[in-house]
Amino acid sequence: MSYNISAGRAVRANRPPRPEPRSDRERWQADYARRLFISDLCVVVLCVGFGQWVRFGGSGAEPPLASQLPLEVRYTMVSIVLAVAWSATLALSGTRSPRVIGSGTEEYRRVVAASLKLFGGIAIVSLLLRVDIARGYLAIALPVGMLGLMVERRLWRRWVAVRRARGAYRTAVLVVGSPEAARAMVAAFSRDRDSGYQVIGVCTRDDGVLVDRVVEVGGREIPVVAGDHDVIDAVRRTGADTVAVTATDNLGPADFRRMAWELDELGAELIVTPGLVDIAGTRLTHRVLADMPMLHVEKPQYDRAKSIRKGVFDFCFALAALFAIAPALCLIALAVKVTSRGPVFYLSERIGRDGRPFRMIKFRSMYADAEAHISALIESNGGNPLFFKVRDDPRITSVGKVIRKYSLDELPQFLNVLRGEMSIVGPRPQVQREVDSYDGVMRRRLLVKPGVTGLWQVSGRSDLTPEDAMRLDLSYVENWSMVLDLLLIAKTIGAVTKGEGAY
């Protein structure tokens, strides 16, 4: 398929008005946005009304707004105007944009930013016009409203997840690129199931033998539906909503432009990936140079992950956590002691930052002689010493199965954090036999302190393959931020309460 740019312009100029929406993706996104609009408005009205009720009571005798305006304005009218302005600000700030709704953190960030901008604007206007709005009223409406909106968006995401599990609210994707790059992109979409992207086919370079070819990723076979110059025809045949283009030698700038025009006519979306792996968005800066879009990648964040700020946060968090869970620690220690012989705590030598060994503290979950059987167990199960864990390990006690399921055996590691040997969030702590097998890339894990939790904890725990665990640890080391730490701590609570993937 050869692309004729001038012909494409003529088609665009002469085609009749097209109906909206034009694809399944646009239909469900429009439906979801309408639901969000209604629920956002309800939440805002309720929270603003709650702020007025708490501040002025429910007698209906709220005082007029203190101002130099010629008309007397009651707070009921103020609440109505505030609710309308808040809803409009959410819309203008793109909080219901198809690009952000349903997955990722950008949706939440926009909701918070829009709310803060609105109340900041109110403060400026009230100062300029000398309008004295009751501070207690605003101090209640703002935090309650933001919390309500965040909870509402979270509930909608759970609803969407249920719909996606049933086959709805999904985006059908065609991946375009070389076989190796296409395989990597399919794997990336498979890891992020919450986004709703479902790869239905691959368009790769045409070597003359496309029939019955497949791309295998994670045990799933994705059919090769066309060559990379027959993308538009493949979209028509498969009904794909989105085309994701990765590294390919066969498509030039003119081809991309033509493809974007024709996909627009079909109502399909075009995604282009630069092929960067495990690079956080905070490290990317977009700029245009000589009419070409470019991405500037900031250097890895190793040094920031060693900052004093992170160390102070770790110490304070660990100290507060130990005080909060002290009763639970005593109960677990008693259960371990009375159900099996041996010490309450298990001290295991692990390798910390810069290769320094330390004694990691855990509640003992195995029989006292468990370490003597490790070599035989690895050999009999064909395990990988780099990341050895076996389901239904015969060395685990009855109490150990319970505390491992919910990661309660890890709680004493807060003591390691207080001693400066570990961090709250970081790579998995490794034993010496694992570190001995490291290559140059894997040794980057030792640039920061190991963590009580980390990306591995919220992404599958013991069910992860060694390769995925390594990739997640390296991604954390290179992309560290304080916001990432807080997000992972919040996700860890959900992961351990479900008790999935731990053994």
TrEMBL record:
The protein's UniProt keywords, in alphabetical order, are: Membrane, Transferase, Transmembrane, Transmembrane helix
Q: Topology in the membrane?
A: Multi-pass membrane protein
| Membrane-spanning ranges | 32-53, 73-92, 112-131, 137-156, 312-336
Question: Where does the UniProt entry say this protein principally localizes?
Answer: membrane
Q: Which residues form a coiled coil?
A: none
> Which regions are flagged for Basic and acidic residues bias?
17-26
Question: At the top level of its lineage, which domain of life is listed?
Answer: Bacteria
An annotated Gene Ontology molecular function: phosphotransferase activity, for other substituted phosphate groups
- Name any GO cellular component annotation: membrane
Specify whether Cytoplasm is a keyword of the entry: no
* Compartments reported by the entry: Membrane
| Region feature Disordered, mapped onto this chain | 1-26
Bacterial sugar transferase domain: from which residue to which, for each copy? 310-497
> What family does the Swiss-Prot or TrEMBL record give for this protein?
Belongs to the bacterial sugar transferase family.
What is this protein identified as?
A: Sugar transferase
Q: Which organism is it from?
A: Nocardia yunnanensis
